């Protein structure tokens, strides 16, 4: 359902893999009866035009139903736990010029990537809280 990577791509303003996330949330938040009906119909064939044209912007994420928000919130927490350090540790390292300059160029780039990822994940936590 989420492709080979098994991950969703989030940006600062919206979900970039919105179709995959939307379908995944719908399926995972279904009751057993709703899921049986979904399987029998081979998915949703008659989605409303509004759903087709909507994007999973930050605003839309904050309006999700509570079960979907909880699922996203818990997933983000699990993702953040997979990192060896937290957002504050990354920020401290970025702000410590002496320690930062001791890192190789590759380590500096990795630090910036991790820091950006964690900031986006923390933003998502706030949106679905």
Automatic annotation (TrEMBL):
Region of interest: Disordered: 38-57
Sequence ranges of Acidic residues compositional bias: 43-53
GO biological process: methylation
A GO term, aspect molecular function: methyltransferase activity
Highest taxon of source: Eukaryota
Listed InterPro entries: Rubisco_LSMT_subst-bd, Rubisco_LSMT_subst-bd_sf
Transmembrane segments: none
Protein name, as recorded: N-lysine methyltransferase SETD6
Gene this chain is encoded by: Setd6
């Amino acid at each position: 359902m989420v492709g080979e990577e098994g991950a969703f791509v989030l940006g600062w303003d919206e979900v970039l893999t919105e179709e995959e996330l939307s379908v995944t949330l719908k399926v995972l938040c279904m009751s057993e009866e709703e899921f049986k009906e979904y399987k029998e119909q081979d998915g949703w064939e008659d989605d409303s035009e509004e759903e087709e044209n909507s994007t999973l912007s930050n605003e839309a994420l904050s309006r999700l139903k509570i079960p979907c928000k909880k699922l996203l919130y818990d997933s983000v927490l699990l993702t953040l736990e997979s990192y060896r350090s937290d957002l504050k540790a990354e920020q401290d390292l970025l702000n410590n010029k002496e320690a930062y300059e001791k890192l190789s160029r590759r380590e500096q780039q990795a630090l910036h990537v991790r820091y950006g990822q964690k900031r986006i994940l923390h933003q998502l936590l706030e949106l679905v809280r």
